[in-house]
Amino acid sequence: QVQLVESGGGLVQPGGSLRLSCVASGIGFSMYVMGWYRQAPGKQRDLVATINAGGSTQYADSVKGRFTISRDNAKNTVYLQMNGLAPEDTAVYYCNARRGLYGMTFWGKGTLVTVSS
Known about the structure:
The protein is mainly β and 117 residues long. The chain has no helices and 11 strands. It has strands at residues 3-7, 10-12, 18-25, 33-39, 46-51, 57-59, 67-72, 77-82, 91-98, 105-107, 111-115. The strands form 2 sheets. Strands 2, 4, 5, 6, 9, 10 and 11 form a 7-stranded mixed beta sheet that branches. The protein has a 4-stranded antiparallel beta sheet with strand order 1-3-8-7, with no helix packed on it.
């Protein structure tokens, strides 16, 4: 019943842009901290960005100034705008929802972003 569905991934050239979307269902969306994580081949899953109910954001150093996370509570959707993409951004990007530090957490199945010329 709880479901996070990502979309917007694909192949893009270096320097290009993509916008990822994640639609949540089965949860009280406005009560959750939403986030984006990514995992490159052979690497661990790392935080990209988070946004809480009040709109406060957190970014990994590697994406600051290039990526922007936002949310639309009326649409139960969180977005990740990615600009100035580089090959090292290639990864599967996962949507995450968390109800507090010790609360329940949920994951989407991921969407693949490939940055290559």
